[in-house]
């Protein structure tokens, strides 16, 4: 019954969401926030960490309560748990990284509506023990983070010419300074984020042929 | 011709599967069918092949674009020398060659980038090279302002071919017109290099412009309330604008070629113009500013309206397929184009967005046209039985 803490089965919970069951590119959950907060790398990373934290602890709490929650009100219980955790995360962000918190504004609160959370609670935490649930939360959070960071990287690099706020593309290249380069304004807009995610899905399915739907 | 055929026959074994240059197979086939009728015949059943295949069709469209291209080159020179005040002292050929040297690199970039990507995809996916890009490759330069940097045109072309076309499965599968995708991409990605008053006339840093020069297109002037542009200039095309869009006359010649050869749908062209005219009349009736008072027919000769109606809306892949659908599709394009153009100050030209939007709705339009036809015929069967 009791596997060792890091058995093969448990490790799979951590690594599968990174590739073959990625929450964004395969399960297609949490797309909304992936489009909204990835215009720059920093908010994308903060958002990714927040979701990971909320997901991991919500999974653990629901898993602990799973035998006591009446089936008919389980969604409400899940929501209460998630909402409480999101408020905690929001307060922590406001206390320690106020500027990013202001940039993310309403999207931290909207973690509550992120489909990945409900999806994992329903599909995993309600039927598993706390430790695997925790790993599942961390794994799915990491899978979400990877995509957010990749999208944020390309959008900030081509949209603003910076990474994490530091200038990568020299000022002297810009047309306004007599050069030839200009920032891609479309990268700042959410439609381009959707296209970038689409390209990630394309590349992933090219490498992992099992994912291609018939 | 004999010599060309010999060349292709001699090189053919070299590109077969397993041979040394097998990765050039689709390139070989692509160029062979450019010169000769394809040797491939159908393997099953009886088919009748028309001599006018996709490549010939596309060639005809390029042919119909020739007046537009030539005039576009001339106009680039014309606008340049007019801006620096040397129009009187410069001859016709000097104007033309100035434009030629400005426009050729744009065309070259568009074809090299686009065809390069097409070749790679054709080879990777193991099919022949599709001819669709022959037309897109020349349409892309025609809808660009002359001052747009070449690398941007390259990026836009790559975007249009990959995201606009190959993602959907290549030529014949795309939802939107690839040339307009390229333009829309640039329009949203690099607005400073695609709109405003400084991109329509080719000028270098050292050029001194005459006092009255603004560089604004008649449409930008009209949007600003100054609607007394020269109608003759707008019709013949001596106005600033994207390379191919200025001359309504040259576009009409192209339209005649397309209609006579049966390649472009006259229904789409006519209904687009009708839609534009209807919207223009409506705006005239409810006019509250100078732009809305612009006589409706003048809308048809400024901006990209004529070019879009003749060469973009009639794209056989992204346009409506059913005959009734063509009327609806074209009419709505015209309607929306003028509406966007006049009512929304953020988008100086509505043609591109109107066509892309209606491209999106084409499957829906066609679906309902087909369904209503089925219903009508079912009813007939029931009443006669």
A few lines on this structure:
The complex is a heterodimer of chains A (214) and B (385). Chain A is mainly α and 214 residues long.
The helix fraction of chain B, in percent, is 55-70%
Order of helices and strands of chain B, N to C? Answer: HHHHHHHHHHHHHHHHH
Q: Identify the overall geometry of chain B.
A: globular
Query: Poorly predicted ranges of chain A (pLDDT <50, ≥5 residues)?
Result: none
Task: Tell me the fraction of residues in β-strands of chain B, as a range.
Answer: under 5%
DSSP strand count of chain A: 2
The largest chain-to-chain contact, stated as pair and per-chain residue counts, equals: A-B, 11 and 12 residues
Largest sheet of chain B: none
Which structural class matches the secondary elements of chain A? mainly alpha
Helix run count of chain A? 10
Share in β-strands of chain A = under 5%
N-end to C-end Cα span of chain A: 37 Å
Layout of secondary structure:
The complex is a heterodimer of chains A (214) and B (385).
Chain A: H1 8-15, H2 31-36, H3 41-65, H4 74-96, H5 98-104, H6 106-109, H7 115-123, H8 130-160, E1 162-163, E2 166-167, H9 185-188, H10 190-207
Antiparallel strand pairs in A: 1-2
Helix pairs in contact in A: 1-8, 3-4, 3-5, 3-7, 3-8, 4-5, 4-7, 8-10
Chain B: H1 2-11, H2 25-35, H3 54-83, H4 92-125, H5 132-142, H6 150-162, H7 178-189, H8 191-194, H9 218-223, H10 231-236, H11 248-260, H12 266-285, H13 290-293, H14 296-299, H15 305-312, H16 323-343, H17 351-384
Helix pairs in contact in B: 3-4, 3-5, 3-11, 4-5, 4-6, 5-7, 6-7, 7-17, 11-15, 12-15, 12-16, 16-17
Overview of the structural elements:
The complex is a heterodimer of chains A (214) and B (385). Chain A has 214 residues and is mainly alpha-helical. Chain A has one domain. Chain A has ten helices and two strands. In chain A, strands 1-2 form a two-stranded antiparallel ribbon. In chain A, helix 1 runs parallel beside helix 8. The model of chain A has no long low-confidence stretch (mean pLDDT 88). By secondary structure, chain B is mainly alpha-helical. Chain B folds into two domains: 34 residues, no CATH class; 318 residues. Helices cover 63% and strands 0% of the residues of chain B. Chain B contains 17 helices and no strands. In chain B, helix 11 packs parallel to helix 15. The longest helix of chain B is centred in the first third of the chain and has 34 residues. The termini of chain B are far apart. The model of chain B has no long low-confidence stretch (mean pLDDT 86). At the A-B interface, helix 9 and helix 10 of A face helix 7 and helix 8 of B.
